[in-house]
Each structure stands twice: as C-alpha cells, then as structure tokens.
Amino acid sequence: MKGFAAFVLCLSLISVAHGKVYERCELARTLLNTYGFSRSTLGDWVCLVKHESSYNTAAKGGPNGGSGVTSGSYDWGLFQVNDYYWCYVSTNPAYNDCNVNCANLLDDNIADDVACAKKIHGRHGFDAWYGWINNCKGTNTESWVSDCGV
C-alpha cells in the first residue's frame, strides 16, 4: 500500500510540473475573466500567444540568434518571456525585471506569466513580441476572439 501511495504521489507531482495547451477561446475567457485583460486588446493577446507559444504554457524557444545582448537567450512559457531581461535561470540574472524563475513560467499556473507579460507590455507595448509584430500587427485581431462569447 505504501508503494502505491508513493506512486500516486509521484504521478501527481509530475502532472503539476507539466504545462497546459489552451484552446483559443478558453484562453480568451481566462485572460478576460480571471486576469482582467481589457476586452479591447484581448484579440491582440490571443493572437500573440498563438504565434509565440501555440497556446502552450510549457513552450520554450531558443536559443535566440543574432549578435546582440540577447544572443543565446531563451524564451519561456505562454508569452515567451525572454530570460535575458525578464526572468532568471541562474543565480546571476542579467536583469530579471519580472522577479521570477524562468522554469516557473512553464507550468499550467499562468498567474506569474500574466504578471510578467503585463509588465513587458506596460514598458514596450505589443512590439516587444516578434510573434505579434509579424502576425498580428495591422490585422483585425478582434477576429481571434469574436466567436468566443466574450
């Protein structure tokens, strides 16, 4: 019986560490109703997340190329938060402006992801994300949420 209990505990810990892949409208409702995103920009956020992480909270992108300061950095979680500026991987982060461990951005609890994304957006707008610039900017982003009942 003890072995079975240990097995169940291990399985529950493993499932906590895994991410979640949102459905488009599920994400829209979650951002609006749980995290207070503005309805007027909700389509932009949903479009951004689609093109940054494919709605996957466990997404990790990189290493980033180029020759700039972010070369070799990684992007983490639903909003693909960059580890050079916004979150930390090691004990000596470059900036860590969101004050969060990057690994915490890969689970299915998106509260820390949302807080960081709002901070990034507050400083740089949607132009902080290439996924938004290349796929959403200048388009009818309302269409990303118009059939979601939000």
From TrEMBL:
Keyword Thylakoid on entry: no
An annotated GO BP: defense response to bacterium
EC number(s) stated in the UniProt entry for this protein: 3.2.1.17
Catalysis performed (reactions): Hydrolysis of (1->4)-beta-linkages between N-acetylmuramic acid and N-acetyl-D-glucosamine residues in a peptidoglycan and between N-acetyl-D-glucosamine residues in chitodextrins
Cross-referenced Gene3D superfamilies: 1.10.530.10
Leader peptide range in chain numbering: 1-19
Keyword Disulfide bond: yes
Top-rank taxon: Eukaryota
Cross-referenced InterPro entries: Glyco_hydro_22, Glyco_hydro_22_CS, Glyco_hydro_22_lys, Lysozyme-like_dom_sf
Domain Glycosyl hydrolases family 22 (GH22): 98-116
Xref: SUPFAM superfamilies: Lysozyme-like
Swiss-Prot/TrEMBL keywords: Antimicrobial, Bacteriolytic enzyme, Disulfide bond, Glycosidase, Hydrolase, Signal
Record-level Gene Ontology MF annotations: lysozyme activity
PROSITE patterns: GLYCOSYL_HYDROL_F22_1 (PS00128), GLYCOSYL_HYDROL_F22_2 (PS51348)
Family, similarity comment: Belongs to the glycosyl hydrolase 22 family.
UniProt name for this protein: lysozyme
Organism per entry: Artemia franciscana (Brine shrimp)
Taxonomy of the source species: Eukaryota, Metazoa, Ecdysozoa, Arthropoda, Crustacea
